[in-house]
Amino acid sequence: MMDLQRTREVSSRVEELEEVGSTNAALRVLSADADGWPHLSMLLTANQTAGRGRLDRTWSAPAGSALAVSVVLCRLPDDPEARGWIPLAAGVAMTDAVAAQLPDRTVAVKWPNDVLVDGRKICGILAEATGDAVIVGSGVNTAMTEAELPVPTATSFAVLGATVDVDRLLATYLERLSASIEALAESGDAVSSGLHAAAVERCVTLGLDVRVSLPGDRFLEGRAETIDEDGRLVVRAGQETHAVSAGDVVHVRPAQP
User: Fold this and answer.
1) CA 85, CA 255: separation in Å to the nearest integer?
2) What angle in degrees, to the nearest 10, is found between the helix axes of 195-202 and 166-187?
3) d(CA 127, CA 123)
4) Which of 70, 163, 189, 228 has the fewest CB atoms found within 10 Å of its own CB?
5) Is the model's pTM score more than 0.70?
6) Residue 243 CA to its chain's centroid (Å)
C-alpha cells in the first residue's frame, strides 16, 4: 500500500484497491452512501483493468505503470452551467500538481482536460455526474516505460526520467481542485471565481491550428482562439467562429508567429 499521509490530510476518505475494473464505476456505487463517502473522498489503484476515457474510449495500462484515481465532489455550484466547468477545473488542478514535480518541463492543459508534458499526454480525466454529485476520474502515467506507452503522443514520469511522489501529487491535486470548486460554488461563475483565467492561462490548445471531431461524424478545422465564459473552445474557421462544447481535439501544428 502507498504512503498517502499528506493526501489523507486533505481528503475526507482515501481507499486504495489492489485491482479494480474502473475506479469511477466503483466510486459511483460506493458514493451512494453519502455519509460514508463524503465530499473529496478518493478511490485509487495502480492496477485498473477496465478504465474508460472520454467518448467511451477504453483505458488500460500494465499493472503498476499508471495511477487511476477517482474523487467524489458533493459541494457543487447550484447553477448547472457552472458545473460544466468541473472537468476543466480538474485539468487545471492536475496540471499544477504535475508541474510541481516537473519544474523544468512545459506542463499544460489540452482542451478540455488532458494534461500534456512537452506536448505529450501524461494524464486523462473523465468527469461523470451521479445523483447530486460528480465523480472525477484521472489516469496518470507514472512508471510506464517507453515500450508500454499506448500511443507515440503519450508520456510518463518514468519516460521523462522522474520518479513521481504520489502522495505529493494527489495532495496538491486535491488542494487545487477543492479550492477551485469551492470558489466556483461561492461566486456562481468561472469568470468571477478565477477559474476561467486559470484555464486560459494553462491551455496549450489556444493559438494552435486544430481539427475537432464533432458529433455526427463531422469535423471542424481552424485556429483555437480562446475558451469562452461557458468553457467552450472558440475556433476560427475562415471568417467564422465556432464555440465547441464537446469534441475530440487534435493539435495540427503550432500557430506561426
Assistant:
1) 26
2) 130
3) 13
4) 163
5) yes
6) 21
Write the CA distances from 88 to 110, 112, 127, integer angstroms: 10, 6, 10
Q: Reduced to 3 states, what is the DSSP secondary structure of residue 52?
A: strand
- Residue 100: helix, strand or coil by DSSP? helix
Select from 214, 206, 221, 219 the least CA-distant residue to 254.
Answer: 206
Q: What residue type is assigned to position 174 of the chain?
A: L
Give me the torsion for CA of 17, 66, 100, 2, rounded to 10°.
Answer: 30
What are 63-83's pLDDT values in tens digits? Answer: 889 999 999 999 999 998 899
Q: Which three cell numbers stand for residue 235?
A: 475556433
Closest CA to 209 of 230, 224, 197, 199: 224
What is the distance of C-alpha 150 from the center of its chain? 18
Vertex 145 angle, CA 152 and 48, to 5°: 95
Instruction: Give 255's pLDDT tier (boundaries 50, 70, 90).
Output: very low
Question: Which is more confidently placed, 188 or 255?
Answer: 188
166 contacts 155 by C-beta, under 8 angstroms: no
User: How far is 33 from 73, CA to CA, in rounded Å?
Assistant: 13
